[in-house]
Amino acid sequence: MTSSITVAKVKQKRVAELISHGKRLDERGLNDYREVQLEVGIIERAEGSARVRLGKTEVTVGIKIEIGAPFSDVPNKGVLTVNAELVPLASPKFEPGPPNENAIELARVVDRGIRESKAISLEKLCITPGKKVLVVFIDVYVLNHDGNLIDASAMAALAALLNTKVFNYEIKDGEVEIKPGYTQLPIVDHPIAVTFAKINDNLVVDPWLVEEQIMDTRLTITIDKDGKICAIQKGGYGYFSMEKILEAAKIAQQKAEELRKIVAKN
Amino acid sequence: MFKIPKRKTKKRLDRPQKKPEKLINKDNVRIDGRKLEQLRPVKIEVGILANADGSAYIEQGKNKILAAVYGPKEVHPRHLALPDRTVLRCRYHMAPFSVEERKSPAPSRREIELSKVIREALEPSIFVEYYPRTSIDIFIEVLQADGGTRCAGITVASLALADAGIPMRDLVAACAAGKVDGHLVLDLMDLEDKEGEADLPLALMPNLNAITLLQMDGDLTTDEFEQVLHLAVEGCKQIYAFQKEALKAKYVAVKEATEEE
């Protein structure tokens, strides 16, 4: 994201110089992720939850499920909503208030990956067609911003979905009655977002904050479980050549496999 | 001097039909009669709003979109001004009557995201460092929408910037490509976008081979992705030709008008 913190010119120069030699300030390779730590079920009140730490970036996702009305054009499908909060305690540059364009973009990129890969079988969330369906609220809560919020949020959202349990219910005389016990939310795909920063015509995977400050531009590619591309978002000023985009698509495939294994372990 | 030419009263568009059984028939013809790799008819006019520093209007199929540029001008509020460059601001907005069900005029999350990616698609084309402590405001109003409005919006906004006389590296041309009924197609209309398998909007500075906007949603293998990418780039190049033609047409009109006087 582009919350501009000030990075000393000399540090900017050093980071860019290292990258052009295939190295990074934190000693990662250009295609390496930072260490990923994943915990699920951390919020008992939520139907599902997960915390992802990607280096110093920290994101918590909570999932709440409610009964609500379907959209009129898809009366037999459940509803999915993703919201993201760039909480002020996460960065000196985040301010209280309604979500700004960065928060909205973050939420919509996470949403697109889950929606387009059809990760949740929304048909199974229908209670009475046209009237009552389950509504899945995915709330992304950014707790510490050290770059690459998209990948951390997408991974936390997926891990939280896999951890989500829906209350059992029964329909009596057209009314929904909540029953004891829980059922797993039907998750059928595992979309993984892989984000690149372009710095001096080099691609780096999983940019951290300083790299985001000096990058020309950013590209996020979301890969589904079959290795297909289900969502893309270019962000930031600057541009890509066709060759760089195709190179990124290839790397994204491998990286998505690696990350999917981490999520599956939990 | 630049009047919108009078048009015959048009019949209302039919209510969107239910999904036809096939979006592409066995002869590879699409529901609006186009071939797979054919653009919708494009009509562009430059310099049509009297108050704006630059403006342009595009019709691409049933899309009707206006863009206006104000600036470079003083920044309001002032604290947003930057010491070394202009501040580019962009608002993409859909008129309440532009879509089938009335859209609330308040900016939706979709419009906020599109305003951001459109700004980021146009910014690489502008010499922002030429105008420190100023702002350039771009307003895109979608009057009627039929799929591909972010691309048509970029195409027309880039012309409005040129019309405002802002120094630019190249025009930005935009076009989507995607996958519908298993076929790779260019310039998806609304129904194809909604019912099809994938949609990939792309913006390009054709002379620099620089891709400034790239989004995708749907389901594509890596090979299909590469083909769709190439298709969208070809579409942008065709749009680019229309842009240059429209820009020249304006100055021919000015020249003729002054010669008459």
Strand content of chain B: 25-35%
CATH topology of chain B: Ribosomal Protein S5, domain 2
Low-confidence stretches of chain B: none
Radius of gyration of chain A: 19 Å
* First-to-last CA distance of chain B: 13 Å
**What structural class do the secondary elements of chain B suggest?**
alpha+beta
Strand content of chain A: 25-35%
Describe the structure.
- The complex is a heterodimer of chains A (266) and B (261).
- Chain A is of the alpha+beta class.
- Chain A has one domain (9-265): Ribosomal Protein S5, domain 2.
- Chain A is 27% helix and 35% strand.
- Chain A contains 5 helices and 12 strands.
- Chain A has helices at 9-20, 101-116, 149-162, 209-214, 242-265, and strands at residues 36-40, 48-54, 57-68, 79-86, 126-128, 132-144, 165-172, 175-184, 192-199, 202-205, 217-223, 229-235.
- In chain A, the strands form 3 sheets. In chain A, strands 1, 2, 3, 4, 5 and 6 form a 6-stranded mixed beta sheet that branches.
- In chain A, a hairpin with a 2-residue loop joins strand 7 and strand 8.
- In chain A, helix 2 (101-116) packs across helix 3 (149-162).
- The longest helix of chain A is centred in the C-terminal third of the chain and has 24 residues, at 242-265.
- Chain A is elongated, with a radius of gyration of 19 Å.
- With 261 residues, chain B is of the alpha+beta class.
- Chain B has one domain (42-260): 2-Layer Sandwich (Ribosomal Protein S5, domain 2), CATH 3.30.230.70.
- Helices cover 28% and strands 28% of the residues of chain B.
- Chain B has helices at residues 109-122, 149-163, 190-195, 222-260; strands spanning 42-46, 54-60, 63-74, 87-94, 134-144, 173-180, 183-186, 198-205, 210-220.
- In chain B, strands 1-2-3-5-4 form a 5-stranded mixed beta sheet. Chain B has a 4-stranded antiparallel beta sheet with strand order 7-6-8-9.
- In chain B, strand 4 (87-94), helix 1 (109-122) and strand 5 form a beta-alpha-beta unit.
- In chain B, helix 1 (109-122) crosses helix 2 and helix 2 runs parallel beside helix 4 (222-260).
- Chain B starts with 41 loop residues before the first strand and ends with a helix.
